[in-house]
């Protein structure tokens, strides 16, 4: 359960607190503070944004939710209630929708259909991997979730210094 709490914090940090923090080389204090909605599937791709932006945007949303799917599936597998992969995917979908609505209401970023799509796919893949590998990977999901939390916390605290050292401005 600690890992799930840490990972919920990671998701909150990366999705809702972007405008207020700098995370190492990922981004500075420049995340959008606007209320905008994009319902167009694959809108960034169709708009011709750079390949790096597509990988970071789509891939980042996907990868961010893979550990969540794995954690939800393996942790719930130890209880009486054993959800299906689709049920865990639906929980990821609801979590993603909640994030997007919060971003819209509080102007914390762009509310985007693609974010929900790739977050949900990531949750489904994480749950499917957890189902295939069973309890053998539970330790991995827990360790991965806590490690990601520690790394992001360190990059948030030391972020400006890391960027300065690498650019020679220290």
Automatic annotation (TrEMBL):
Keyword Transmembrane in annotation: yes
Domain VanZ-like: 6-133
Pfam families named among the record's database cross-references: VanZ
Stretches that traverse the bilayer: 7-29, 49-73, 85-110, 116-133, 140-160
Entry keyword set: Membrane, Transmembrane, Transmembrane helix
Top-level division of the source organism's lineage: Bacteria
Name of the protein this chain belongs to: Putative membrane protein
Taxonomic source organism: Corynebacterium deserti GIMN1.010
